Amino acid sequence: MSPPSAAVDRLARSASRTGTTIAVAESLTSGLLASAVGAGEDAATWFAGAIVAYQSDVKERVLGVEPGIDPCSAECAEQLAIGVRRVLGADVSVAATGVGGPDPQDGHPPGTVFLGWATAGTAGHVRLALPGAPEEVVAEVVRQAVRLLDRLVEAAQHPLVSTSDPVSAENRTPARR
């Protein structure tokens, strides 16, 4: 899978211009999101890093996800994003978790994905229902996550532009630290 270069280029320019640091946590994408983001120009100056946490106990121990949380849920995605932002000391973060397929998992159909995000005082999520083979689902998750990161970086620099940046208000919760 090749990285979504135009979106990564835009993210790299935005993060470099604003001095915003970025972190990612991922499960179903198994490091592909970090690889795509890390391919951005001057990534060493704005990409704090990534944590790939596939097993639930790793999500709990390393990133502070509450035990028993459904790994394919908005709550898990938000807790992953909050945790990786805290652990890596980044300004903004995105986390990807869900079911890539081809089979359902724990009652969730293939393509059920949650992107969590966190900034200094807010966290939220985006729910995706993606069609396709597992590799197509994962590729689209990476594309959507990079776009979300870019919106987060831009929103952090223009907080008065909109009250619903970067995603709709109903998907926001106060970030726990």
UniProtKB/TrEMBL annotation:
* InterPro entries from the UniProt entry: CinA-like_C, CinA_C
The CinA C-terminal domain covers 9-152
Q: Which domain of life is it from?
A: Bacteria
Name of the protein in question: CinA family protein
* Organism annotation: Microbacterium ulmi
What does the organism's lineage look like at the top? Bacteria, Bacillati, Actinomycetota, Actinomycetes, Micrococcales
